[in-house]
Structure formats: C-alpha cells, structure tokens
Amino acid sequence: MSAPKLTDSQKKVRGFVNRIIGKLMFKWKHTTSMELFCAAELAELCIRARELIWAEPICLKLETPICVMGDLHGQFDDLLGMWDSNGWPLTEKERNWFMEKTLKTKRMPCTEPKSSQPDSNPNGPRSSGGWDEKPVLKEVKDLGYKRYLFLGDYVDRGMYSMEVVILLIAIKMAYPDRLYMLRGNHESRSVNCHYGFYREVTRRYDAKLYEYFSDLFNVFPFCAIIEDTIMCMHGGISEQLMNLSQLALYKRPVEIPDMGVLADLTWADPDPTVKRYAPSSRGASSVFGSQALREFLKRLNLRLVIRAHQVVEDGYEFFDNRRLITVFSAPNYCGQNDNSAGILCIDQSLKISIVVYRPMVRDRKFFGKEKRTKVPAKVNE
Q1: Do you know which PANTHER family this protein is assigned to (predicted)?
Q2: Which of 109, 262, 349, 352 stands 20 to 30 A from 125 (CA)?
Q3: β-bridge pairing 269-270 and 179-181
C-alpha cells in the first residue's frame, strides 16, 4: 500500500522542518548560532511540535529496540557526538540527503559499519545482565537508524539549550516514531527562569519566544512504559500512583506542581538510607528507598525503573540490586564534573547494553577548523 500523497501545505511544513534539521546538522557552529534562524521560524516550530506532542498520551507506550538518554542540559556538542558514536535517529541515506540539500554537495558512500543495535560500539556493548529472560517475540531487524527516548532536562546550565530542543523537536516532527521526549523538572518556568534557559532565549531573541518554548514544555509526556515491563521517567516513583490508568486523569497543558504524582515523576530521587519515603532536600517531592521501589514495581507489575535527574560519575548507576537505573547524558557536567555520559540501549529481548561516553575531539568532517566532541570506543558495565 503506497503512502498517502502529501498536500501542498504538508509539503511546505516538511520542507520547513527539513531545513531546520539540515542547518543544525551541517551549518551550526558556535560562532554562527545566532544566524541560522529567526524568532518567527522557531516560534512556528514550537507551535507545530506542540500539536504533535500534545496528541501523544501523558504516559507513552513504547516498543523495543530503543535507546534511553538522560539529562542533556544544553550540551549540544555532546548530543551530536553521542549520536555520531551510538547512531542517529536517521539512516545513512537520510543523513546524506540532508547534507546534499544543506551544503549543495554530494558525499561519497560511507565506509563505516551500518548502525545497528548490537553493534552500537566497536568493542561490543555488554549486557548489564538480569533483564534478558523474556523470549524474543519477533525477529530483530537492522532498522538503519536508532530510536531514542529522552528523559527530560534538555535546558539550563549548558550554553546551547535552544539547539538541543530545536533539533530534537524537529526530528520528532519529521520522524515521530523514532524519537520521544519526556518532561524533566527543568522544563518548567519556575526552574528554567533561574538556571539559564530564560536568559539564553531572551539574550538571543526575546521573551515572547521563551513563552512559546514554555507552552511546548507544558504538554510533554511525564513517563513511558517500554514493552509493559520497564517504566521510564525523569525523577522517580510516586507513593500516590496506584495504577497507570490514573495518569490519564491529568490534563495538559500543566505546570509541574511541588507535590503529587507529577512532581514525583519529575523530582523524586532514590536514597539508600531510607526504606520507604522521606522528605527531599530539593524542596519538592520526596526521596524513596528500596522497600518503596519494590512495592511500586509489584503494584504496577513492572520489573525495572529507568530514570535520570542526578549526576552519576560513570553515566549510569544501579539502585536496589538493579531494580532501578539512573542514566545521565551530560558529560563533564557544567564543566566542573569529571563524569561520563550514559546511553542505555534496550534490544527486542529486553537485554540492556550500556554505552559510556567520554568526550574527546570530534573528527573534522564538514566544519573546517571548528571541531565538536567525539565518543571514543568504550563501553562499561
């Protein structure tokens, strides 16, 4: 069955989105970041992405294979570097098409191995173990691209929060089933007004554009369930969440409250010193212990929680005998931490491979003297 023919209006929107993707992939540099887009273009992108993301449920139901990434915090160079290493949500043919259209040139066929879930790293990512008992229900296929779930905190701290959000939502619009975005606690006016995003947008453009971004964040989903087995969110579990159907009662657009289920999903942290729940030093939500986590998993018939929200030295960290994984994807966070970044790759048998990213100098491919970061071939447990 052939794909439905696009209307002239749909073709115009697709061309608009493709131009944004191409510019960020092949024309963006630190020195030209102010020159690629006008405020009206970015406002329109936010409006159109908002319509698409708002149509998704507040709790996403996702299939494998999929890669899960944590906080990015405006580190656009590192996002590009991680995709260069682990695989883009675009095929090689699509990347070449964007390059040809953007740079008006042709690229020789790539001689590198095709990106595939088992071969995301030359050294061969090893399983984290403990989640490979589920039988393979369908043949694993090489998609030619990677599918991604992002756990929030795209903005603040880093210098290029706008580029991170713009590229992610543009690819989301072009390929809706390849990229999914959850809401973090920094996708909130009360937080990003103080930690950099508001200053970045108003310095580069104006306060009106900041409102378009805020309206976009207010419709983001809060959590995702992968294969009815793994629950993903930015923060942590909630004592008040009795079943998943309860989430449908929350209507978007919505600001993140200080307490309650939505606050827990964006703010809560695991704490090995408590058994169940205790007040959080963050001033919002709570911390939870191993007993609370086990009760939560049993209540919702889940096996694992994947969350972000905390800097962890190796880019990932286990809690309660691997019932929970924290993943953090902003390496050398704030330029003051010597942390790695992590990417969790979940295959169709629910085996989890952890790719660890240590930033280095990215190869000069298209950008002259300007270099970005690159991921060396390294995988940790």
Answers
A1: SERINE/THREONINE PROTEIN PHOSPHATASE, SERINE_THREONINE-PROTEIN PHOSPHATASE
A2: 109
A3: unpaired
Whole-angstrom distance, CA of residue 128 vs CA of residue 117:
15
CA distance 80 to 99: 15
186 given a catalytic annotation: yes
Q: Residue ranges per domain, the chain?
A: 8-105+143-357
Positive or negative torsion for Cα 368, 369, 372, 375: positive
Active-site hit among 30, 73, 186, 309: 186
pLDDT for residue 360: 61
CATH code for the structural domain at 8-105+143-357: 3.60.21.10
Helices then strands, counting H and E runs in the chain, come out as 10, 16
Q: How confident is the chain (381 residues) per 10-residue block, as mean pLDDT?
A: 74 95 95 90 98 98 98 96 96 96 65 34 33 35 89 96 98 98 97 96 97 98 98 97 96 95 97 96 94 98 98 96 98 90 97 89 41 40 33
- For the entire predicted model, the pTM comes to 0.85
